[in-house]
Design brief:
Elements lengths: L1 H18 L8 E5 L5 H9 L4 E4 L2 H8 L7 E4 L8 H4 L5 E5 L2 H14 L3 E6 L13 H11 L5 E7 L12 H15 L6 E7 L6 H6 L4 E4 L1 H4 L9
Parallel strand pairs: 1-2, 1-8, 2-3, 3-4, 4-5, 5-6, 6-7
Bound molecules: pyridoxal-5'-phosphate (PLP).
The site of pyridoxal-5'-phosphate (PLP) has 14 residues, from strand 8 and helix 9.
Length: 232
């Protein structure tokens, strides 16, 4: 069943790409495995998933040893500075950088471990109060402050779009983030590529792809609904 879900999501990604003349190889599927047990991650692994997204440091720590090492772990959730040290050499990307202080901590901890960490800046495009992330006009100033850090690589932008019934309602959010990434890329800033645009979740990843997403983060669509009551 999980393998079928994964295949269905992959087929939907291909279809969305084709609808706008994009090559499906431009889009990376992040299988969002938060709250799901190791055996389900292994099932997804056997079905071909190699990029897993988690939003809690503790869950990455708990699952890390049990999953084959050719998997990439992406930290997609709000990251507390005192926990950066636990994952800085385990994750392939941090999607949720939204402050100078967090970027500084990642830089310091990555330096200690002698690694370079690819990061995305999280943007709260719709300016929802409940959400973390930078405002659109805060992104460039932050990049200019951190682009000389030697242990991070600024790879692009991420957003969590509002929860909506009709994914079309988020098209404008995705368009705005794409435009911001194009504008920033045109400035040719040191250590900054804007090659990654992480946007789109189960409810809206096809629309996000049509608007330029290069990474979609799909949880429910692969693993089924989450039961938070079993998490301690
Ligand atoms: C949980 C989560 C997702 C996946 O959400 P689904 O709606 O289950 O696909 C994607 N991105 C982030 C940042 C998340 O926390």
């Amino acid at each position: 069943m999980l393998a079928d879900n994964l295949r269905q999501v992959q087929a939907n990604i291909e279809k969305a790409c084709k609808s706008v003349g994009r090559n499906p190889s431009e889009v990376t599927l992040v299988a969002v495995s938060k709250t799901k047990p190791v055996d389900m991650l292994l099932e997804a692994y056997d079905a071909g998933a190699r990029v897993f997204g988690e939003n809690k440091v503790q869950e990455i720590m708990d699952k890390y040893e049990h999953i084959p090492s050719d998997v990439q772990w992406h930290m997609i959730g709000h990251l507390q500075r005192n926990k950066v040290k636990y994952i800085v050499d385990k994750v392939s990307m941090i999607h949720s950088v939204d402050s100078l202080r967090l970027a500084e901590t990642i830089e310091q901890e990555a330096a200690k471990k002698d690694v370079k960490v690819p990061i995305l800046l999280e943007v709260n495009v719709a300016e929802e109060e409940s959400k973390f992330g930078l405002k659109m006009d805060e992104v460039l100033p932050l990049i200019l402050e951190i682009c000389d850090f030697r242990h991070i690589e600024i790879k692009g932008l991420m957003t969590i779009a509002p929860f909506v019934d009709d994914p079309e309602e988020n098209r404008d959010v995705f368009r705005k983030l794409k435009k911001l990434s194009v504008d920033i890329a045109a400035k040719n800033i040191n250590n900054t590529t804007m090659s990654v645009l992480s946007m789109g979740m189960t409810g809206d990843y096809q629309v996000a792809i049509q608007e330029g997403a290069t990474m979609v983060r799909v949880g429910t669509g692969i693993f089924g609904a989450r039961d938070y009551s079993v998490i301690h």
